[in-house]
Amino acid sequence: MRLSGERRSVTSRISLSEPRPIRRPETERWLWIFDFDGTLSPIVPDRHSAMMDRSCRRLLMDLMQAGQQVAILSSRRLDDLYPRIDLPGVYAGGGMGLEWILPSGERRSYAEAFEEDVIHRRTAMSGQLDYIEHVLDADVEDKFWTVSVHVRHLEQDRKEEVKRELDAAARLYGLKIRNAPEAFEVLFSPSLDKSFGVSVLCRIAKWEASRGRLVYAGDDENDSVAMELVAHLGGVTISVARFPTVRESIVVRDPPHLAAVCRSIAGL
Ligand SMILES: [Mg+2]
Q: What is the CA(47)–ligand 1 centre distance, in A?
């Protein structure tokens, strides 16, 4: 009964540009792309204990069973991400799509093109990151290609101080800072973001616009660039947030709601 209520809410959240509810034609093979933290996994105080929501895990299995292509694209390093997925058959992308494990188990890396640039900017910014970690007491998670600065435990004025430091470093060294729930993501290379990951995935999954749509679900500013690309390519975007990350996005409140909405779209 609850599910039917969810389905009605899908209809009401579709943007004005979609005159009818989005529904995958039964014969089409779509490429479904999910962020991990905050999207498939609820945000937890300890990022080391993040696990995929059970209803999302079932969704991914059922999508694959229905012949759909499924990918998880995260800023976590691939070796950190992959054991948390534990689902054969998905495309798993770490480092925002620099490193992949394909459904066949094959590994692909696109890291070489970015390595020199990233090392240069990491070195340049190391003093500011030390200050943010040891003086401002933020929790700095080094993922090499990016750094997440977690501020959940800090007072509001300290959070703002961390943001000011990051913005100053971004201007100085040409970095990008993205807002995430209770964290800031530092992107060392300006062209390395999740839209890069989506482009790489479309190539390795041999996705073609003529044969099916893209779906992208994410929860923060780092996902919004990927969602803009997906929307531009005629795809469906879903924001796990109170407000849409991208204007046309379907808004869902949490991972179980995301699973219900995706089921409705996929016709599962
Ligand atoms: Mg996220």
A: 11
The pLDDT of residue 45 is: 82
Distance 217 CA to ligand 1 centre (A): 9
Is the pLDDT at 41 greater than 50, yes or no? Answer: yes
Q: Residue 233 in contact with residue 214, Cβ under 8 Å?
A: yes
Q: Which residues surround ligand 1, an ion (CB under 5 A)?
A: 35, 37-38, 219-220
H or E stretch including 152?
none
Which structural domains are found in the chain, ordered by start? 2-110+193-266 (3.40.50.1000), 112-187 (3.30.70)
Examine the pLDDT at 12 and tell me if it is beyond 90: no
User: 156-209, pLDDT tens digit by residue?
Assistant: 999 999 999 999 999 999 999 988 888 999 999 988 999 999 999 999 999 988
pLDDT digits (tens, 9 = 90+) for 58-70: 999 999 999 999 9
The per-residue pLDDT for 31 is: 97
For residue 204, which phi and psi values (nearest 5 degrees)?
-70, -25
| pLDDT above 90: residue 108 | yes
Q: How far apart are CA 160 and CA 183, in angstroms?
A: 11
Residues 6+ apart with CB under 8 A from 198: 33, 73, 97, 214, 216, 226, 229, 230
Q: What is the pLDDT of residue 222?
A: 87
**Rg over CA atoms, the chain:** 18
Cα of 198 to ligand 1 centre, how many Å?
15
Count each helix (H run) and each strand (E run) in the chain, helices first: 8, 12
2 token code pair: 């609850």
